[in-house]
Design goal:
With 285 residues, this protein is α/β, with parallel strands linked by helices. The chain has helices at residues 20-33, 56-79, 94-102, 117-122, 128-134, 167-179, 199-220, 235-242, 266-274; strands at 8-12, 37-43, 88-91, 105-111, 139-142, 154-159, 182-189, 226-232, 248-253, 279-283. The protein has a 10-stranded mixed β-sheet with strand order 3-2-1-4-5-10-9-6-7-8, with helices on both faces. Helix 3 (94-102) packs parallel to helix 5. The longest helix is centred in the N-terminal third of the chain and has 24 residues, at 56-79.
Length: 285
Amino acid sequence: MTGRKGHAIVVGIDPARDWHLPLARAADEAHRRRLPLRPVLAVVPQHDTHHGDDIPGHMDLRRAGADRLEQARNWVRDRHPEGDVTCDLLHGFPAPALGRVAKEARMVVLGSRHLSRTAEFFSAGSIVVPVSAQASCPVVVVGDAEHISQQPPYVVVGLDGSASATAAPAFAFDEADLRGAALRVVCVWQPPLFMPNDEEVALRAQRALLSEATAGLSDKYPDVHVTHEVMTGHPVEELARAAEHALALVVGRRGRGGYTGMRLGSVVHGLLHRAHCPVITVPSE
């Protein structure tokens, strides 16, 4: 199998922690989608910017990084012998380096350290929030191993009822179809303090919006069993609960976030820290 890098599934290899979970997710996605896999590892530059590539410490880091990438390549080939795997050793801090690679990717897969929000913002090694905020392709964040206990397997997509939220459900339908899974389309409604109309009327309106958002997609993916659910409560808590045993939770992101990820959105940001299943952030088209 061959393919251009621009169509690859990119996975970030973190040399400081176990990389098998995100690599397995990325390798399986590449296999299902018949795309090449591109494991990447970034080597942080040393303080001596004029001779950074020549100083012994940096050379040791590059050798260690190259060895880790070779381990990853061999591990993937054992899992999917026919796969197209191209490893890249990058120079630079992980977040901006992966952000550059994401411009050429079909999807980026990252592991999560489940850092606190403060640590995520200020840790030099944090990559989940800035990459999820900036990438022009879907970003999959894998925190825990799959622990599916409900059958049939299912994917959850969270919608907010906005007219621009089309990319996330389209991706969710495709993911569910590829994995032979059902799809739960979920909207979390927060009732206002003062309800001018009957609550049931408002809930019916939310359900109608969900049906409209997925009407054409249901025709395109007739084998995907779809349910529409309107929940009441806090979006982060309810979506995380709905996706507790899901293959993935898909959420949309509007616009381009800043480098620090401060514009990622409170719901998406909260889900990256709260949800146990993989969270897939899909930028708006």
